[in-house]
């Protein structure tokens, strides 16, 4: 009986050991997936998921960290060389017009296989259609959803003493928040050059997201859209439209707004622009959702915020231009990020499994609700305040959703990097005082026509018309 009992015990133990060993086996044990990510706060989505992916899938993530603005060049070099440098890539959607034409892998069959449509459809429709899709196929999941908001100090603009002085100076009640660009000029001018928060230092009225050369399109595009009454950058035959009176008005407005920003603003980095509002240097900021995510929290990459700001911040749409009684109001939707998979990935199924772990509903909030991360809200589940682990206000989330309807989207056409580089150089040169407005706009028109001719007019017209159909289908007034 003892021998029988011992035999049964050993058999059961062996079975238990085998079952435990089987349970511990990961589906992609030993697989390595390379992921090209941004640097600094834009590499956090990978950094906080690497161990989780290893634990649940057995996949080792080889994180390749490079500044985001280099990713287009790196992807194109990889493509020309035959691929293989990266399996997953974090990319700006502005490059979709080229990278979704062969370099990025369509994901539909993997979404089907992994039953991942629920997670994909958690991405807000605007971001899905503008960022992730092309020709009826899905090429990525969103990592960062960028649409700009107007942030303003309610406690400062609402100060009765300041409101009285404003009316005495300008002859009308201070609009809180400013509703037109003329209002913004007056309010920003009023709060520039004196110590309105009584900290012993003079403050300023206004800032934006960066106006550095490499980021200049993000402010030019929505201001152009507003001033021009909703015009796009090209007509349907790809003729540039900005070398016009509307283009001159856009540059003149930008030049005027620069007068109310901190000295040297056109060289500020992203973190510096966020911090100048979060830390109380300016009264109004027209900027991305990072401010709304960070301003109630301490020790962030965008400055020293905290709960002392709770209830003091207003969230609104950017100012409008009224033409014929109709408001034309836009804000910036430049930037944003998707995660895609290279068509040359060594194990595309494993790469998709890793991507999906990052983008599942329960995990995407982890790099959005994070003071070290540059990822902004992009999913319906992110709009539930209960899902956040850092301090944000519900008014911020509501404004984020509302402002998506005012976004001035990027023209997702081949060669956009080249078109943008000319626009950036000429607008920045004008703002820096290196050239006059007419010269700058003439240079843009000439340069854009050269690019279009070199890439092929018919090809560019087709891509541009396709972009317009998508935008108008989503309700954008362009």
- Helix residue percentage: 40-55%
- Overall geometry comes to globular
Give the overall pLDDT as a whole number.
93
What is the CATH topology classification name of one domain?
A: D-Maltodextrin-Binding Protein, domain 2
- Residue share in β-strands: 5-15%
Please mark out the parts with pLDDT under 50 across 5 or more consecutive residues, or reply none.
Answer: 1-22
Give the CATH architecture of one domain: 3-Layer(aba) Sandwich
Rounded to an integer, what's the Rg over CA atoms? 25 Å
Find the CATH superfamily of one domain: Periplasmic binding protein-like II
What's the story with the biggest beta sheet?
5 strands, mixed
Number of strands: 15
- If helices are DSSP runs of H or I spanning 4 or more residues, what is the number of helices? 21
Span from first to last CA?
86 Å
Structural class: alpha/beta
Largest beta sheet: what is the strand line-up?
2-1-3-14-6
CATH class of one domain: Alpha Beta
How is this structure best summarized?
This protein is an alpha/beta fold and 478 residues long.
Describe this structure in words.
Strands 2-1-3-14-6 form a five-stranded mixed sheet, with helices on both faces. The protein has a four-stranded mixed sheet with strand order 8-9-7-10, with helices on both faces. Strands 4-5 form a two-stranded antiparallel ribbon. It has a domain at 30-139 and 337-375: D-Maltodextrin-Binding Protein, domain 2. The protein starts with a helix and ends in a 5-residue tail after the last helix. The chain has 21 helices and 15 strands. Residues 1-22 have low confidence and may be disordered. α19 (416-431) runs antiparallel to α20 (437-455). Helices cover 45% and strands 13% of the residues. With 478 residues, the chain is an alpha/beta fold. The relative contact order is 0.16.
